[in-house]
Amino acid sequence: MPRATSLSCERRLSKLGIPIAVYAVRHSIFFQGKEGLRKLSLEEQLAAQRGPTQFGRLMNELGVQLIHALSPQARGRIERLWGTLQDRLASELRLAGAANCEQANQVLRRFLPRHNRRFVVNAQQPETAWVEWPKGRHLDLLFCFKYRRVVLNDKPVRIGRHVIDIPPPANKGHISYAHARAEVQERFDGSFVVYLDGHCIATKVLAEPIPFTAPAAKHRALSSRQ
Question: Does 25 share its domain with 115?
């Protein structure tokens, strides 16, 4: 789930709410097919299916149905729109004399409402297909990368080259976190948060946020591999 995709989703949720369903192509960001070369984890073998991608996991947590385009005709609807925008926007930018990103964004903000008014097709069901964002639910708990990690004997967890130390349990009845299976959330602000049974047990803030030019392996959610 690239950072730009996530930030775009955040803005839409804040403005419109949660969609009932999302229509998408079978790209590796949205879908992890059988053609993947990665071996199945133990959890995936027991479930007899591959785990979701990070985007798929986000959709599941939001309660959004992810509909994959299974035919060339279905994909063509999406590709024709991109083709129209890429062709027309190039002319709009040239005519407006846009020379930098800010000027291009200004052209885009004027162009999209005009384009939508001209080509809009009214929905057969006028009721909204968006659900209001629940009050008290935090976006940063969903819009992040999530991984499964096993707490090591000396009580840290490792995520890539980073080591997150876990303090002793506040509850004296809890002997140790060693060998516990925790969830590590990698946030966009450059922090890591470790959860165990729904409770935050450790945090780590990096001096510099991680650049989110993530390889394909990073799209996978809740991987248990160290």
Answer: yes
